[in-house]
Each structure stands twice: as C-alpha cells, then as structure tokens.
Amino acid sequence: RQEFSNASGYSRQLTSNTVSVGGNAVVLILQLSSSDANGLKSLPPLFTDRAYAFISIAASAIRDIANNSVATIPASAALQATNFTRDTVAPQLSSFLVDMNAGMLVFNFTKPIEPSLIDASQIFAQATDTGATFTVPLTGSYSTSPSGASVALYLSQATLNFIKANQTLFVSRATSFISFSSSAFRDYVGNTATAITSPALQAAIFVNDHTAPRITGFDLDLQQGQLTLSTSTVINPLLTQATAIALQQSSTSAVASLFYLTSATILTNVANVY
Asked: What is the pLDDT along the chain (274 residues), one digit of tens a residue?
C-alpha cells in the first residue's frame, strides 16, 4: 500500500497501478491508474509542487527477491520526492450531455476541473456546429463528480427560459452544440482547457423536457380586465385554451359555482411567454 501526502496533511492512497522493473531490479516504475491520477490532481496542494510531494509506504507494499518486506515509511515521517514534474497538460472536453428536463448540462473532461475557475461567460450553446446562428452564454451553478473530471452546470432559470423560448436551440440532439474559449475551464493548477470553437461539439446525449409546467400564482385586475398567470417555465401561448380556466370564490368551491372563461386575448409581453 502506497500513500501520497504533502506537508499540509492531504493524502491519497493508491488503489491500482501497473509496475515496471528496471534492468537492475532496484527501480520500480508505477503507472498510476486514471482514477488515482485524477484523484491526485483534484486535491490541491497535494502534488502541485515538490514542496507538497511526499510518500508513505506500508510493509506489504514491496518485497525483495528473498521475500523480505520493505521498511515502512510512516505518514508521520513521509519521504519527499527527489524530483517533481508539474502537470502542464491541458484539460480536454471529451463529451457533454444536455438534460432539458433537469435544466442541466454535464461536461466530461479528460482530467479534473476546478469549479471555482470556470468562466461561464466564455461557454456558449449553439444550434449548429458552424456559424453562430444562435449563441447564448451559459450561466448557473456548478458541481463536480467524485473524480472531478465531470462538471454539472445547473442552468439559471433565466438562461433556461431564454433557451426554451428560442425553439431552435437544445430542442433535440441535432440542435445541441457547445463551444468555448480556452479560459472557460481550468484544472486545479490553472492549466487552461483546449478551446472548442468551430466546429462546435455536438451533445452525446440529449434528454427532452417532459416536466409539466406549474401555475405558481396569478393576479386579477378587473379594471383592466386582465388575468395574469405566473408559470414555472416558458409556455406556448398558441396552445393556451382560456375555456379550460375557471375562476372561483374559494379553494373548495362546488363545480356548479365555477366561472369558466369563454374567450380571452393572449398578451405575450411577459418573461415566461414567447
């Protein structure tokens, strides 16, 4: 069992690796698994500099030809790295998915991403892969997977409504593309991501919006003769049926006392209507 640690007390125990043996059998080279490599990269300041690069080893980690166990290196007296090569590899976006039902996008990178360094103003949703026929900056909140290599963007309600109202963007996988500048994403040591410009990257998975809209409140102005309904999402005024709306004097009024609208003109100068 090998455990990496740093002077600040952060540590990471290796889970698996590939071992190569030098010709004189006194050099072991361990090729870290992707999960361990990403785990180390998502625990700054661990292994961000030689000053933060230490190793501790259990007796069972290594044995010699005579089956003698290696001398233990405890975490309380860890061994510092002799040489250290800083990670300078740019993160690359390998795929992303669009979930319009949950109002989120998930970006899958080749290495861990630092959420606090994401610049949403440099991330754009597009309806086509070339030419900005429609482009909107993506804003919202972020979270990362345990490995740090997947980033979930929860779209703000304003951004989500803006996209839904467009009707040409993110309505299917064929209209779901992403582009961004190199400064949009960075890893934990500040390496900028490889930019995606033209052509933009198409979503690998698309989930359509199948959540029923909710009426969250209403205002009635009898002087103006206007009924204003507040909704949870963007609605289609062309599919509105006023005759299916009833007014009543209490929350438990009998069906016989309901007042059903017979007709109405739909006004579209509100945020949740396109």
From this structure: 555 555 555 555 666 555 555 555 678 888 888 888 888 888 888 888 999 999 999 999 988 888 999 999 999 999 999 999 999 999 999 999 999 999 999 999 999 999 889 988 888 888 999 866 566 778 888 888 888 899 999 998 888 888 888 888 999 999 999 999 999 999 999 999 999 998 999 999 999 999 898 999 999 999 999 998 888 888 888 888 889 999 999 989 888 789 999 988 887 654 454 4
DSSP 3-state of 115: helix
**Cβ neighbours of residue 125 closer than 8 Å, sequence gap 6 or more:** 135, 136, 138, 163, 169, 170, 176, 177, 178
What's the chain's length in residues? Answer: 274
Matching residue, tokens 């100068």: 269
